[in-house]
Amino acid sequence: MATVVWGDEPEERAVVSAEDVREVLVEVDRLAAEHPLIVDVTVDSGDTLGVALGGDVSVLLFGVASKKPPYFVSRGGRRGAVMVSSGSGTSGRVRSFWNRR
Known about the structure:
The protein is of the alpha+beta class. The chain has two helices and seven strands; from the N terminus they run ββαβββββα.
C-alpha cells in the first residue's frame, strides 16, 4: 500500500489497487495540465518518491525511510537530464529544487 499526496491544498489518497493508481494518475494528469504540481508517494516502508510535473522540466526525487543514501534528485528538460545528490525528505527537497529553476 502507498499514500499519494498532491496539489496546492494537499489531497491525500491511499493507493491499494491498480484501479486506485489509475484514478490518481487521471487526476494528477488533469491538474498538471493546468499548472505545475508535486506528487509525493510514500510506501509502507517509509520510502518516498516525489515528482514535480506540469512545468518546462520534470523533477524526480527518491528517498529511503532511513534518510540515508541512496537518494537522488533528477531534473529533465530540453537541455538533457541533470542528476544531483540531495538530502532527506521528499517534499521539501523537491519543492526547493523546483522553485530554483
